[in-house]
Design a protein that fits this description.
single chain; alpha+beta; eight-stranded mixed beta sheet; transferase; Glycosyl transferase
């Protein structure tokens, strides 16, 4: 009977294990679903809409094949379409019936040429001229490489075959191209994983393994029982039992029949244990080969823990960049500016700097080319990026305020980055150092961004376009300024450093024999600089405001026989091109200053956050 139960266990175990394995193999079906994108007309760019990527649930895998380099990037659909607005491209969309369709999109004339500037005053521009201008501009745009654009959230570049794992929402699209000139790859597919869970495969395989082990055990018991009964016996005369000869006995006892019988019980039990081991090992392997989707999910789904969130105001537009995008942009800016600093190349610096930041670099390059030991500018900090406040704006220009730390020097920098249009790279327009004790106001999260504050906004303690002039007046007049009470004096290191520097230079001027107080005058002043202010809102309805201030120092002789000498001032002498003047010298320093400006109903004062100061120019009056 034991053999019968063992055979039944073997058969049932085989059926169960086979059914479990079949569920995971031949009965499981395909694990992915693929949609091929067919392109009929060759264009330099292929834009795949987010609806196409999200027609099936789950992550998306983009696969593009062509000879040579293949490029792919993704970003917000509106940004992608804006970047492609001046060129011809193929747009892949999802039709109302769920079919994937492609259409060639021609460039927008308004995006290529501005009629307000390109049309003649008499309005005599013809349609042919406009068409020619459109064709020329489209040709130039078609040769524009998409590689390295600051507009992309991320990009991929491979040769011959590109495979990009994606997980994009519907408001994002994917751009596929070669180099902007050659036709975009025509063999493009999008693949999604299918939900093919087999919840009973695991229990069947494990249960079958247990039954198989039980069958082996029953089979061993059956063999043991049969051996004990010694099988069937014939009826007849009893025969003497033949005893085995013990050949292991040495000496004189060799050949003597042993009176005791030795059984191979230990050997038999060892074989049985050896027979059970493969079954257990096979069951363990089958058990470990089953993934989570091969088991029934009996437990309740975990409930997410609610966290505090910040809700964007109604109608607020999308943030200019993500944090990862800002880190990549700032890293590129830092690398380019470092190369420009090393080569003293103003043209290279201009590709990533503008405004007051570029003007300070240009002056430094001029001084370093003439004075070999003149110090190099401080590098642009890029990592780690601690704070990012992007402007919430869908059009251009769009800007970002970023704060980066330098772990080695334990310093931080606050910067303003601006992108003038969809085809331009971000440029650094303001940069300043933060004090160690600086308290940054509460800012909106990077995924929400902040709206820009109008230059003449009346909702702040002081409109952004008046902050520079008011602070310059405080620098010049101190407590006599009408704006003195609007600015926080405690912790204002810029005012303290300006006052100390002016006193030092006044003492040096008065001690000079030929241009002292008896023969000349040294006057200090400050005015708003030429760089336009920039401001983004904070959570408390205040604003971070970046402004440019110029400090102007004027040295003049007081009589016709006196001259002003600057032979000991290498900087002024190099910039002015002379070491003395009968009319005097004017030296200009450029300050890039960041303030926190509270809202108009607050009792707080305008607080200095960070600044940088560099010599800008020197000339003979």
């Amino acid at each position: 009977m034991r053999f019968v139960w063992a055979v039944a266990a073997f058969v049932l175990a085989t059926v169960m294990i086979g059914a479990g394995i079949a569920q995971r193999t031949i009965f499981q079906g395909p694990r992915t679903e693929t949609t091929a994108i067919s392109v009929e007309e060759e264009t330099p760019y292929l834009l795949i809409d987010g609806a196409v990527l999200n027609q099936k649930p789950g992550t998306q895998t983009l696969r593009a094949q062509a000879e040579g380099d293949i490029f792919a990037s993704y970003g917000r659909t509106a940004d992608m379409e804006a970047w492609l607005s001046d060129t011809t491209y193929t747009h892949v969309t999802l039709a109302g019936d769920g079919d994937v369709e492609t259409a060639v999109v021609e460039p927008e004339i308004d995006a290529i040429a501005d009629p307000a500037t390109d049309a003649p005053a008499d309005g005599s521009a013809t349609d042919d001229a406009a068409a020619d201008a459109s064709t020329d501009a489209a040709t130039d745009a078609a040769g524009r490489s998409p590689v390295g654009s600051d507009l992309w959230l991320d990009e991929y570049q491979q040769k011959d075959l590109l495979i990009a794992p994606l997980q994009l929402p519907e408001e994002m699209s994917v751009l596929v191209a070669a180099d902007g000139t050659a036709p975009a790859p025509s063999k493009v597919t999008v693949t999604w994983p299918l939900q093919t869970s087999t919840p009973w495969a695991g229990p069947l395989i494990v249960g079958g393994g247990i039954l198989m082990a039980a069958g082996v055990f029953l089979y061993i018991l059956g063999i043991r029982h049969a051996r004990r009964k010694r099988g069937p016996r014939r009826k007849g005369l009893p025969l003497p039992v033949t005893e085995p000869i013990d050949i292991a006995i040495d000496g004189d006892d060799k050949g003597v029949i042993s009176s005791s019988r030795r059984t191979p019980r230990a050997v038999a039990s060892g074989r049985r244990a050896f027979a059970v081991l493969p079954v257990i090992a096979v069951s363990a392997l089958l058990f470990t080969g089953c993934s989570a989707d091969a088991w029934p999910q009996l437990g309740a789904s975990p409930t997410p823990t609610p966290t505090a969130t910040v809700i964007a105001p109604d109608g607020q537009q999308a943030p200019a960049v993500t944090k990862a995008q800002a880190e990549r942009i700032l890293t590129r800016i830092a690398a380019t500016v470092a190369d420009a600093d090393a080569a003293m190349d103003g043209d290279l610096a201009e590709t990533r700097l503008e405004g007051a930041a570029l003007a300070a670099r240009d002056t430094n390059y001029k001084l370093r080319s003439a004075l070999g030991d003149y110090p190099t500018p401080a590098p642009i900090l890029s990592k780690p990026l601690e704070i990012i406040l992007p402007q919430a704006y869908d059009a251009w220009p769009r800007s970002v305020i970023a704060i980066a730390d330098d772990e080695e020097s334990k310093t931080s920098s606050i910067m303003v980055l601006t992108q003038q249009d969809q085809w331009s790279e971000y440029k650094l327009s303001y940069v300043g150092s933060l004090e160690a004790s600086t308290a940054i106001p509460d800012l909106a999260p990077a995924y929400i961004g902040a709206a820009a504050v109008e230059p003449d906004s009346p909702f702040l303690v002081l409109p952004p376009d008046q902050v520079a002039a008011a602070y310059a007046d405080v620098i010049s007049k101190d407590k006599e300024s009408e704006y003195y009470d609007l600015f926080e004096a405690d912790g204002d290191q810029l005012r303290a450093s300006i006052a100390a520097d002016r006193q030092r230079r006044r003492d040096e001027f008065n001690q000079t024999a030929n241009s002292g107080a008896s023969t000349g005058t040294l006057e200090f002043g400050a005015v708003a600089g030429p760089q336009a202010p920039f401001a983004l809102q904070t959570v408390e309805s205040g604003a971070i405001v970046a402004v440019n201030i110029n400090e102007v120092d004027t040295a003049k002789p007081t009589n016709a026989d006196a001259v002003i000498k600057v032979e000991n001032n290498r900087t002024v002498k190099t910039l002015a091109g002379a070491d003395q003047s009968a009319t005097g010298f004017e030296t200009t320093f450029s300050d890039q200053v960041f303030f926190y400006v509270p809202n108009a109903g607050s009792n707080e004062k305008i607080r200095l956050l960070g600044y940088s100061s560099d010599i800008l120019d020197a000339k003979i009056l």
